[in-house]
Q: What sequence folds into this?
């Protein structure tokens, strides 16, 4: 039994074959999912999907790339949709310095506002970090994000950074890149992070694991991520599946 803790089956790329995608996930043993929405259209679509499928939950947030578009009323709306019984986290939120669509200062402000909303609602947060590790850690500390904790999604940092995040009550989620042959850092992180703090995800339709690299990713492929972690840790796939699913249920508060 596997838990894909971060997927975007609400993306248009799944509009034609969502039903078949969900069936393939079930066949691969993926029983639980969190569908992540990061703007109005993707959040609305995520909520439609979670109402249709059992064991499929949603996380709602505002993506840093689009931080420039977030208005005060969007934050109010986020709070409203977060009251949905199947919303289990806030995010993805964070900083993305790869694309320069939104100025850094705007991204930081929008990030801080969402952390504070999560504290108000007592929901864990899902962090998106691209080329912004130092500022992310600083803001998480300054805003005392450890009060809610959450997930460093598709973690690509060093084992040292991973340990800093663990100390702040965050879980480390690994995705497709851990299966890439030359992905040294994610493999080291998989080895070093204790099993009770690791999660698996796809981030589909992006970042498909080997041997599907470059193709459309989907929740069924989270099994390949779990298999890679099992190999690196010297555990069985079943042990990794069981522990990462238990971890995900704990962080999202699902029984
Ligand atoms: Zn992300
Ligand atoms: Zn994502």
A:
């Amino acid at each position: 039994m596997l838990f894909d803790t971060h997927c975007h089956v609400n993306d248009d790329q799944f509009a034609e074959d969502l039903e078949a995608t969900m069936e393939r996930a079930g066949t691969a043993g993926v029983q639980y999912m969190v569908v992540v929405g990061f703007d109005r259209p993707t959040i609305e679509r995520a909520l439609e999907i979670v109402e249709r499928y059992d064991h499929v939950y949603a996380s709602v947030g505002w993506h840093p790339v689009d931080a420039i578009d977030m208005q005060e009323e969007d934050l109010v709306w986020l709070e409203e949709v977060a009251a949905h019984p199947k919303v289990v986290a806030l995010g993805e939120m964070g900083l993305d310095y790869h694309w320069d669509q939104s100025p850094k200062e705007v991204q930081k402000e929008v990030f801080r506002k969402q952390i504070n909303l999560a504290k108000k609602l007592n929901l864990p947060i899902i962090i998106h970090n691209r080329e912004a590790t130092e500022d992310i850690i600083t803001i998480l500390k300054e805003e005392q994000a450890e009060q809610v904790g959450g997930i460093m999604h598709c973690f690509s940092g060093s084992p040292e950074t991973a340990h800093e995040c663990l100390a702040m009550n965050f879980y480390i989620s690994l995705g497709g890149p851990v299966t890439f042959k030359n992905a040294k850092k994610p493999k080291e992180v998989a080895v070093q992070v204790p099993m009770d703090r690791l999660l698996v995800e796809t981030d589909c339709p992006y970042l498909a694991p080997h041997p599907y690299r470059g193709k459309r990713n989907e929740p069924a492929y989270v099994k390949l991520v779990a298999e890679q972690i099992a190999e690196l840790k010297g555990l069985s796939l079943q042990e990794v599946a069981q522990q990462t699913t238990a971890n995900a249920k704990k962080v999202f508060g699902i029984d």
Notes: The mean pLDDT is 97.
